[in-house]
Amino acid sequence: MRLYHCTWRHCSRPVFSLTLCRGHFRAFRVQCAWPECQTTSYCRQVCAKHYRKKEFPPVQLCLQCAQPSYIDNKCFYHYTQRQCIQCNRRVFSKQLCQTHYMQAYRKSKRKQNQPVSVSTTVTENGTPVEESTPSS
Ligand SMILES: [Zn+2]
Ligand SMILES: [Zn+2]
Ligand SMILES: [Zn+2]
Ligand SMILES: [Zn+2]
Predict the structure, then answer these.
(1) Residue 91 C-alpha to ligand 4 middle, in angstroms?
(2) Which ligand has the shortest distance to the CA of 28?
(3) Each residue of 13-42: pLDDT tens digit?
(4) Which ligand is located closest to the Cα atom of residue 38?
(5) Ligand 2 centre and the CA of 44: distance in Å?
(6) How many angstroms separate the CA atoms of 128 and 28, rounded?
(7) What confidence tens digit (pLDDT) does each residue in 50-72 have?
(8) Domain range summary for the chain, segments of one domain joined by +
(9) pTM, whole model, 2 decimals?
(10) Of 16, 49, 87, 105, most Cβ neighbours within 10 A?
């Protein structure tokens, strides 16, 4: 069975990737923003020690926009746009690589296996709503 909330000590936020929530996944992947410091990041891109001392280097920004960097010099948006949240492959759709997207697709198909199947949602003006539009 897959865990649905973060496995970090007492955290109960929803899982983002690798059994960790969005914040703890970052803490696990990213080091303190001070170049000489190897400690994992705690808050505001620095480790707990530097955070307590209130020593913040210039905020690292995303290489593709002006948002603060989340992981690997990419903001959360650009990071999740490019890399599957289940593995490190390129995103195919909905923040998942082709393999994981197909897995999720098949799972959701199985779940929807009910006598009445409505595939497209239709708005009041009769326009079908696309479910898979990856808008910002
Ligand atoms: Zn967490
Ligand atoms: Zn540090
Ligand atoms: Zn960005
Ligand atoms: Zn994947």
Answers:
(1) 8
(2) 1
(3) 998 888 889 888 888 888 898 989 988 888
(4) 2
(5) 11
(6) 41
(7) 999 999 998 889 999 999 888 88
(8) 1-57, 60-108
(9) 0.55
(10) 16
